[in-house]
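Why does residue order matter? Because the sequence determines the fold. Keep that principle in mind as you read this record.
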Amino acid sequence: MYTIKGSAEFIADLRQIDPRLNNIRLNSIEIERKDCKVRYNFICDQAVDENLQQRVLAEAEKITAPIFSTVEVSVKKIVSNDELINNEIYRYLSKNYISISIFLKTTDILSNVVGNVVKYTLRLTKDGAEYVNRNSVLTKLNSHLSKMFCSDFTGTIDIKEEQESISLLDDNVYREEIEKIEHRTIKVQDVVVIDDVNIGDVALYIEDAHQGNVTVCGTVTEIQERKTKNDKPFLIINIDDTTGKTSGVYFSKKSTYHKIKDITVGEAIIARGSIGEYNGRRSFTFEKINRCTFPKDFVKKDKYKKSAPKEYKLIFPSPARDSVKVKSVFDKEEVLPLEVVKDTIVVFDFETTGVDYMNHGITEIGAVKLIEGKVVEQFTTLIKPDYHISEENAKITGITEDMVKDSPKIDAVMPDFIKFIDGATLVAHNADFDMKFLKRFAGASGYEVKNKVIDSLELARKVLPHLKHHDLHTIADNFSIVFHHHRALSDAYATAEAFIEMMKIKNA
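Structure:
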């Protein structure tokens, strides 16, 4: 892994350049070995103009190893804010310390920003506090927060009254919870060591491998040799473990490169590598590779599916706004079909970076909730996808890279959307398209979507046979529904209005 020599001195030098950089911090380093490119991501509590960013770039180029032909810098303004800090503390503890987070609420986190120092308090039970102290959790949390915000952090613990009579750290209490987050693994056979005897024989499902350092295995489906700009050879290897597929790069090692190169399509490997992100795209690097035999009797285990969250954490629904829709059937006093009023219905729409749900992401969610045939709530958010938004796609949806650059990722949004649709019948126009995206990203976050689904496109074909086309725009025109096409929330409102009208026709 690439590290900066004398990074503390480097940051100190940057802070001497300009007063606006007094609190600049290095957030992360992204490396694209294929193109010999390195990108330094900084955070700062002051806005940095292009001229000052160029001066930061000049300093970065001085300390970067000559192997990198391209150096880039990004300086993002981050201001410490109580709400943002509390949310990040809760997210970090929930992800890394399940035994604490089970009984931790957002209201149990209190923070106070004083100048460049943030003091926060965690309200924990006695057992939880002991666990935090024993495992140096606050030290690790402070280090994490310092990379996320331009402040120094100090944390304390406040003991709260225990509402549970069972020990929070009792093995019997947490065995079930720990099993829920346990990674699914594959045990390979006949390992032949090429790179590292310590890789072992147990690999993570590719389907479950999302970030960090992981060991995966699979049958090689393609292997290609390429060269860098400096004429250094490397391999691109594609593997499939039946739960998923991944493609990674393997860089030249004098002692083992040719042995890896000799691996052919159809053979199996077990490999340790790192999953990261570069320019918003998922990247995988194979670091160590051994040959192996993939188990013939392998049967994929079902992943534990989480239930819908009890509370919204990031994206909260808001009351339906009449201003969003020009004409509405929802405000009319009329008897609606039983199929419409008996169940809670959520009409939703996704805007995406493309049509292939396995190779594209969601850029916007728009949804409206109907209770007894009337819209009562709306759910909407832009999303920063892990995929490039092309100019052609931006022209269609009106959503650009710049619009979503500060938006949350789909894994942060999905729990709230799952809560919004919990127990509801789902309606979407060309539902198969949206449901594939929903099931893919819900599954990646540990949720299973089992809602009843109604496709308003199929409904339109049945009840509006006189129309030459059954796209949403044509159907909306048929019912004089005016909306802004290809924006998720507006599409959701239009679909909901058209759905009501079509259900009235169906039940006439």
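The longest strand covers residues 212-227.
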